[in-house]
Design a protein that fits this description.
The protein is built from eleven helices and nine strands. By secondary structure, the protein is an alpha+beta fold. The strands form three sheets. It has a five-stranded antiparallel sheet with strand order 2-1-9-8-7, with helices on both faces. Strands 3-4 form a two-stranded antiparallel ribbon. The protein has a two-stranded antiparallel sheet with strand order 5-6. α4 packs antiparallel against α10. The radius of gyration is 19 Å and the shape is globular. The chain starts with a helix and ends in a 6-residue tail after the last helix.
């Protein structure tokens, strides 16, 4: 019994020491349940970078491979779509009822960006977010003027240091100069690389914005699209019960290889988010990262379950 208690004390202390060394706040004892859920989720995905960020306090509640997450920069893929769309909707720069037809085949500047969603009638904003339609968001990107993407993204915290770690990589961003470059950047394919910490920070900003303006068109469209995405849409592998999470997947290629990596970033619980869950899988696709999220959520300390 004594040995069991001692091990139970040493584990949280060692975890807290590791986070202090990395420059993140220590984990209080009540977050041991989140860490346990993270450990369950990454048991079969040891290379994944994963963090759980408290929205109210901006504290890291649990993590896996946090040092690697702080140093990782990778193309964000479709995880950018909700951030860009929210900003444009909030500024009345995009009509959420605009419908865009998609034949699931898209080429931009030599990049084949075929959609994997089912054949469907033209999408509106909520549906395009649910099914992560590249053709729709390539059209959204055309509404931006040259030099506008950086000031659109910077308020979210995506393109700068987060303060979550003492030593962290910061975004590698190149302002698009052509329509094609703009489309590829909005789709998270080229011209931008970010860290898991930056994406978590940006989605925390999104959660706070939606909480501050719950009745706005922008909040309602983005919240509904993210809920649908993580329930039956492109991030459906993250589903772990009704209302568990709202989130988005992303898949992109590395700069030096054609091998894809996958992302999932989500807000939990879906209706009144308290945490951001950010997952980067260095090999695979967004669906793989969403699967990790689904395991995490099945063990997560969410009150509504």
């Amino acid at each position: 019994m004594t040995h069991t208690i001692a091990r139970g004390i040493r584990a949280p202390l060692a975890l807290a020491a590791a986070f202090l060394f990395l420059g993140a706040p220590p984990l209080p004892a009540q977050n041991a349940r989140w860490q346990s859920a993270v450990d369950q989720a990454t048991h079969t995905a040891p290379q994944a970078r994963l963090l759980v960020l408290d929205i109210a306090t901006n504290r890291i509640l649990a993590a896996h491979n946090f040092a690697d997450a702080a140093r990782t920069l990778a193309a964000p893929g479709s995880t950018l779509k909700p951030l860009v769309l929210y900003r444009l909707l909030a500024a009345s720069r995009w009509n959420p009822h605009t419908r865009v037809a998609c034949n699931r085949d898209l080429f931009i500047a030599g990049h084949r960006l075929a959609c994997s969603h089912p054949q469907a009638p033209p999408f509106d904003a909520r549906e395009a977010l649910t099914w992560s339609c590249n053709t729709y968001f390539a059209q959204v990107a055309r509404s931006l003027t040259p030099g506008e993407l950086s000031p659109l993204l910077r308020p979210t915290g995506l393109l700068g240091p987060t303060g979550l770690a003492i030593s962290e990589a910061t975004a590698d961003f190149r302002e698009p100069r052509t329509i094609a470059d703009q489309q590829l950047a909005v789709l998270g394919v080229t011209g931008i690389r970010v860290s898991p910490l930056e994406l978590a920070t940006a989605y925390r900003w999104l959660a706070l914005e939606m909480a501050a303006h719950p009745d706005s068109v922008a909040s309602q469209i983005i919240a509904a699209g993210l809920r649908d995405s993580a329930t039956f849409g492109m991030a459906g592998e993250a589903y772990a019960g009704e209302g568990t999470i709202a989130g988005k997947t992303g898949t992109a290629e590395g700069t030096a290889t054609s091998r894809t990596h996958g992302w999932f970033v989500g807000l939990a619980p879906a209706q009144q988010p308290r945490v951001v869950i950010a997952i980067y899988s260095p090999a695979g696709r967004g669906a793989d990262a969403a699967t990790i999220a689904g395991v995490l959520l099945a063990h997560a300390p969410l009150e509504h379950r």
